[in-house]
Design a protein that fits this description.
Elements: H1 3-9, H2 19-23, E1 27-31, E2 40-44, H3 46-121, H4 139-157, H5 165-172, H6 175-225, E3 235-238, E4 241-244, E5 251-254, E6 257-260, E7 266-268, E8 273-281, E9 285-293, E10 296-306, E11 313-314, E12 319-323, E13 333-340, E14 343-345
Antiparallel strand pairs: 1-2, 3-6, 4-5, 6-13, 7-12, 8-9, 8-11, 9-10, 10-12, 10-13, 13-14
Helix pairs in contact: 3-4, 3-5, 3-6, 4-6
């Protein structure tokens, strides 16, 4: 049998049975609604079916990317919200520190004013204008006050600036921003501790200055009460203590200091005080007595005239009478007596100028 005859005797494969031919057949999609409604179909060629599958895969991938990006954006928005909350908390802390600093500054002002007052009281400077430049005689208090003032200025120069923080958060939103907020939190904690420490130091300095002010005030009041000014310029004719009597040969106790001066010479208060007696006393003649406080009293005797009244307040150096020769006296002079806690004292132990 020849090849041609063989080919004639062999039946060819039907086209519909060929695998390649079967793959080229169109796809039919049938939609069959319920309730007896008519069905309808969609016929898709293999080429269109392939395009549809590819497009579906691309759309699914795109949708997956959108979902991933949405989750990431939501996470970043949550982190941004948290950072904004931290930023608001820091702004609140900064405002609280600034408000607290007003109290600290007020304390510092009062401490400085008290320091100036004390230095004026003891005659260290001439007035409030010179107080800042005058050298302090209280180095511990003044240095502490100045140091506190410097610390306050330095502390508030280190407060982090909040300008533009929101825009920075919107653009960075990462580890750098977290580190920045963490560093600022640590800085705020340190700043808060520094200010509170300064407040405690100022409180202690204020207490020390108040104690010093009281001590200085009491001391100045005591010094103002000491009869240290000569009541009249004259010659000491008889000192305090035992002496030979000018009226005989006997020895007697002389209760004061005799200052000889011309008749009518003004007699002045030896210290600030209240007039408690004016009048005549046996042997002493015309007398003025002054209570100076702190246990001091003085008496001015043998006056020719009295120029003050009881309960009158005299400053140191105010005129109270005139030198005379009243009472038991051998000539014009002032008999000056000093008492402390009711006991006679030697006037020359207090007179300085």
């Amino acid at each position: 049998m020849s090849i041609r005859e063989f080919k004639r005797g062999v039946s060819p494969i039907p086209k519909e049975e060929s695998p390649r031919r079967a793959r080229r057949q169109p796809y039919t999609i049938i939609f069959a609604p319920g309730s007896g409604q008519n069905t309808w179909t969609i016929v898709l060629s293999p080429e269109r079916m392939r395009h549809l599958l590819i497009g579906g895969a691309m759309a699914g991938g795109f949708l997956l990317i959108i979902v991933i990006l949405s989750v990431y954006v939501l996470f970043q928005l949550g982190e941004l919200q948290r950072l904004r909350s931290v930023n608001q908390e820091q702004a609140k802390q900064i405002q609280e520190l600034k408000d607290f600093s007003v109290t600290v500054q007020d304390k510092l002002t009062r401490v400085k004013a008290l320091d100036r007052q004390i230095r004026r009281m003891v005659g260290i400077d001439g007035g409030a204008e010179e107080a800042e430049e005058a050298p302090s005689q209280f180095p511990e208090q003044s240095s502490a006050v100045n140091e506190s003032g410097k610390k306050i200025g330095q502390a508030f120069r280190t407060i982090p600036s909040r300008s533009g923080s929101n825009s920075q958060q919107g653009t960075s939103m990462g580890a750098t921003l977290k580190q920045r907020f963490s560093a600022e939190q640590a800085q705020l904690r340190l700043l808060s501790a520094t200010i509170r420490q300064m407040d405690a130091e100022l409180e202690e300095q204020a207490k020390q200055l108040q104690r010093l002010n009281k001590e200085v005030t009491d001391r100045l009041a005591y010094l103002a009460s000491v009869p240290s000014t000569y009541p009249v310029r004259g010659t000491v004719s008889s000192a305090f203590g035992n002496r030979r009597s000018p009226f005989g040969a006997t020895t007697e106790f002389h209760s004061g200091l005799d200052l000889a001066a011309a008749y009518g010479t003004p007699v002045r208060a030896a210290a600030k005080g209240d007039v408690v007696f004016t009048g005549w006393k046996p042997g002493l003649g015309r007398v003025v007595e002054i209570d100076h406080g702190h246990g001091f009293q003085t008496a001015y005797c043998h006056l020719s005239a009295i120029t003050v009244k009881v309960n009158q307040v005299l400053e140191r150096g105010d005129m109270l009478g005139k030198v005379g020769n009243s009472g038991r006296s051998t000539g014009p002079h002032l008999h000056f007596m000093v008492y402390h806690q009711g006991k006679l004292q030697d006037p020359e132990g207090y007179l300085l100028h």
